[in-house]
Amino acid sequence: MILDRLTGWRRKAVLFAAGAVSVLALPPFGIVPVLLLTFPLLVRIARASATPIAAFGAGWWWGLGWYAFGISWIAEALLIEPEKFGWLIPFATLGLGGVLAVFTGLATWALWPVRAQALRSAFLLSATWALGEWLRSYVLTGFPWNPLGSVWADMLPVLQLGAYGGIHGLSMMTALSLGLLSLALERRWPWVAAAIALPLAVYGLGTARLAAHPARVVDGVLLRLVQPAIAQDGKWRDDMRERNLADQVGLSRQPGLDKVTAVIWPETAASYFLNMDTLHRRLAALAAPPGGVLITGAPRLVPPQGDEPLRLYNSLFVVSPQGDISAVYDKAHLVPFGEFVPLRKILPLTKITNGGTDFSAGPGPRTIPVPGLPAAGPLICYEAIFSGAVVGRDQPRPGWLVNLTNDGWFGMSSGPYQHLAAARMRAIEGACRWSAPPIPESRRCSTIWVVKSAVWIWVNEVSSTRFCPQHRSIPRFLVDGEMHCR
Predict the structure, then answer these.
(1) Residue among 381, 432, 445, 485 flagged as catalytic
(2) Alpha carbon of 225 to those of 169, 263, 292, 449, 451: distances in Å?
(3) Which SS3 state, helix, strand or coil, does residue 218 take?
(4) Residue of 167, 218, 259, 381 with fewest CB within 10 Å of its CB?
(5) Of the residues 235, 331, 351, 452, which is catalytic?
């Protein structure tokens, strides 16, 4: 057939275009049927490759389209200060996309020895694809963004497979189904039927799992989520920081505060070193409800001590109404070039976030006590994309997950939607035992996703998402909601 005869630039262009079009299956579009054409095309061309290098190239070109367009939202962050970082856009999209595409290339390279055996090729590709996604969590600090399984973000029953096999198991199932579908080109209809039956069976089992675990309200818990709508270019300005803090306190203290258990602000919502700045910590504490707490993101500075240099952390604070800090979590998985510059002595670059000092990494996942609430599993920003890295090995299982993030960096791009899909998946994978309202989703735990670019999102048992316009016209919101459990 014509796909088998493609060579040269035409072959590369078709593969790149197929990978790029496949991005439509990801959030926020969710057009999963495009994969019914684009993924079998990849399998067919890879199996028709004349050499192992050509088989690798098939996966690499498809992956370049998938990743370069799938992570195009990175450009939004670089355009906050275009005069400093705009020139990095091709490197951050095509360059990073090319690095990530190596893993899809290795997946198609691995099937070359069995290319003549269609069925074995489909099974092998699903395994190597999932292995590649797992490796992406670790190589070069890891960047497991947009795994194939995330295309099911809007199909909660299918996502339930993640409670047993994680996102990688979900990706393996997806790759296997799509790989078997490629056998339609060889008229092997029983296996095509199996390709269709596999996700349908997962959907049915997921539906049964949801129906078997009705949610219940956690008595006496009411959370207030605050979206302050502070423009990214004004967040750290000295002449605006106090006003920004006062605005968030004012939003938090709207009527009904006396019924609230905890007020939650986004990542670095308080742009002061709350561990050292008593005045501004007490001002922020005015947002805490009587007898409750404020949970907020803020930077944390640790001065030099002996041989220990100055350290700067991206942190989550739990603050009482009196201004006391009852718990702190330091972000452990930092964003390369965003929060620190790898090989700083060699690369003549500055980090994208405010200030010239690199952030330090925290000790890792922790479960923290929160007065009036179950113990929490905190996540900051893109820590939510790392499967299996939300609960410390020596830590008790949390009652809920809270993901503070500032996706205002990424405007009205696909980035915040894809981030939300990842945060939801962490909850479904069963990091804890509680769940949140009102639509059943995973029955294992809840993630409260507090983000500058969205009003509020309950993740796991609920997906109630209201995105609002970015830039300076973002409306401000305050939302109260109950917590539910199994």
Answers:
(1) 381
(2) 33, 6, 14, 9, 9
(3) strand
(4) 259
(5) 331
pLDDT in tens, 406-461: 888 888 889 989 998 998 898 888 644 333 332 333 334 555 555 544 433 443 33
Helices 162-181, 118-135: axis angle to 10 degrees equals 140
Where is average pLDDT lowest: 154-168, 190-204, 359-373, 453-467? 453-467
Amino acid 435: pLDDT: 34
| Paired residues of 458 in beta bridges | 448
Backbone angles phi, psi at 308, to 5 degrees: -80, 125
Extract the tokens encoding 196. 């269709």
Q: Is 331 a catalytic residue?
A: yes
Q: What is the pLDDT of residue 4?
A: 66
Q: For residue 485, indicate whether it is catalytic.
A: no
What span, in angstroms and rounded, lies between the C-alpha atoms of 97 and 170?
Answer: 22
Q: Where are the domains of the chain?
A: 2-211, 216-485
Q: What is the pLDDT of residue 449?
A: 53
Q: Which amino acid is at 426?
A: R
Provide the 3-class DSSP secondary structure of residue 267: coil
Task: Please tell me the predicted confidence (pLDDT) of residue 441.
Answer: 36
Active-site hit among 76, 133, 235, 267: 267
Confidence (pLDDT) at 460: 36
Specify whether 267 is catalytic. yes
Q: Which CATH number describes the domain made up of 216-485?
A: 3.60.110.10
Residue 474 banded pLDDT, cuts 50, 70, 90: very low
Please report, rounded to a whole number, the percentage of residues in the chain having pLDDT higher than 90.
63
| Residue 395 confidence (pLDDT) | 86
CB 300 within 8 A of CB 273: yes
How far out from the chain centre does Cα 467 lie? 16
266: tokens are 């986004």
More confident residue, 159 or 218: 159
Number of H helices, E strands in the chain: 14, 10
Contact indicator for 253, 290 with CB cutoff of 8 Å: no
Q: Is the peptide bond before 438 cis (omega within 30 degrees of 0)?
A: yes
Give DSSP secondary structure letters for 332-393.
-SPPBTTTB-TTTTTS----SSSSSSPPPP-S----B--TTS--EEEEEGGGGGSTT-SS-T
Hey, what are 361's tokens?
Answer: 């990494």
Which pLDDT score is estimated for 366? 92
d(C-alpha 42, C-alpha 122), whole Å = 11
Please say whether the beta carbons of 434 and 401 come within 8 A: no
